[in-house]
Amino acid sequence: MYQGVLVEINGVSVTKEADTYGEWTVDGNLRVDDLFYSYKPTVGTRFTRLVGILHTSYDNYKLEPRDENDIEVEIVDGGVDVIPDTIEDTGPVVKVVTIYDIQNENSPNHPAQNEAIIVNNVVVTAPTHSASTNLYGFFVEEKAGGEYSGTLVVYQKSSSLGPFSIGDEVTIEGSYKEYNGMTEIVATNITKIGTANPPAPAILDPADIATGGAKAENYEGVLVRVENVEVTNANPDSPNDYKEFMVTGNLRVDDLYPYDYTNQRKVGDKFEYIVGVLNFSYSNFKLEPRGNDDLKLLTVAPDAGEDVVADTTPDAVEDVVSDVVEDTTTGDAVTDISDAGQDTGTQPSCDGIVQHIVISEVATRGSTAYDEFVELYNPLNADIDLSGWKLQYKSSTGTTWNDRLA
Known about the structure:
4 domains, five-stranded mixed β-barrel
């Protein structure tokens, strides 16, 4: 409950002197540490008050006085402090900062490169992933969110730390570093103190957070959301393929975390939204969705009788000339509602059709995709029995109509 909180205790005495790590113990078996300030009292020293941040490390709660003002020794022997020389004024050992301080260079509390820092009570927004051969990484954010609120955290794979999941609330000890243009905390100790709701993703214009965008630096490491975007480039690194694609505003979307659309990338696909943390790697800002739920393809059901446009690229979607499935049990006519005409015979009419459905999407098996499907849309406000219905189809270059029972 009090992890990371500034607390005060009164009227306690030293029961164990400082060990080689600078930790000593007072009544109640409470450890007092030298994370910020070094002080080495003798056994029996009594304190009127001890103030410090309650911190957890190596499975122990420890009081962390910030400076000499947090330690008030009880005066004895006629008002003379009998241990005035036991204080070692070493100054702050570790700087307490927020992610806002780290990311905003104009913050008065902005740490220096490689300076030792501690960040309290932040929330994991993207889980542990492999950051390099030797490092794991994950993203954290201040609960209030907004600009400068998120960052990458990395730690050694050989350590006993982690893994960490979305919603974990953690306190991080380590150092601040800029690595290849990306801000990160190199963690030496990470304490999970509970769980919390991550801040809602910031809804932004994709152009603003793309490489060179006006707000890209401000939202580095932050959970963001872009809406109503379209795939403009299915492989911006061609002929190489790093499983990235580009959407409206030249914003790259990467695959740091796995999701299905990685292998379905296609120019023209529209998304209702894409959510992810804003990462920076190989000189580009990139959105990193954390899984399938972070991407929602925009699907619009066509009105009855509306043209359905099919992609005729090889190994993808076949040109379906007959776009309406006919009910062969009633003899209702079927209209060719595509842009292609029928080869021979009388052009049928839709007049009088009572039961009809629309093909909204057709995919055939290709060299890299093995799923075949036909997506049907019912424009009516009633169920339709498909028994006896058939699908008429031919390829984009074919001359013969084929039937397939529904």
